[in-house]
Amino acid sequence: MAVCGITVIPIGTSSPSASTYIAKVVSLIKESGFKAMPTPIGTAIEGELEEILKLIPKVRDAIYSEGLNRVVMNIYIDERNDKQLTLKGKMESLENKLGGNV
């Protein structure tokens, strides 16, 4: 299991706001069966790495289907082979170190 992050930056929009495009991406991620945690600057995804990597072209295509010709994506991957990673587990670890809710 891996925890990945994806930041999607649509280029060439008619407005500085990207939330319409990001909402489409987050919906696609969730409809694909992944656990997802949207944040103000990206979306965290939990799942098998190979399956998440298959999702990336679908994200790109979702942006292109909106009539845009360019998208920048930052993708980061956190994977361990000694234990399973989950979004919940990573947040609980952080909360424990901070002494409460994040």
TrEMBL record:
<comment type="similarity">
    <text>Belongs to the UPF0045 family.</text>
</comment>
<dbReference type="InterPro" id="IPR002767">
    <property type="entry name" value="Thiamine_BP"/>
</dbReference>
<feature type="domain" description="Thiamine-binding protein">
    <location>
        <begin position="6"/>
        <end position="95"/>
    </location>
</feature>
<protein>
    <submittedName>
        <fullName>MTH1187 family thiamine-binding protein</fullName>
    </submittedName>
</protein>
<dbReference type="Pfam" id="PF01910">
    <property type="entry name" value="Thiamine_BP"/>
</dbReference>
<dbReference type="InterPro" id="IPR029756">
    <property type="entry name" value="MTH1187/YkoF-like"/>
</dbReference>
<dbReference type="InterPro" id="IPR051614">
    <property type="entry name" value="UPF0045_domain"/>
</dbReference>
<dbReference type="GO" id="GO:0005829">
    <property type="term" value="C:cytosol"/>
</dbReference>
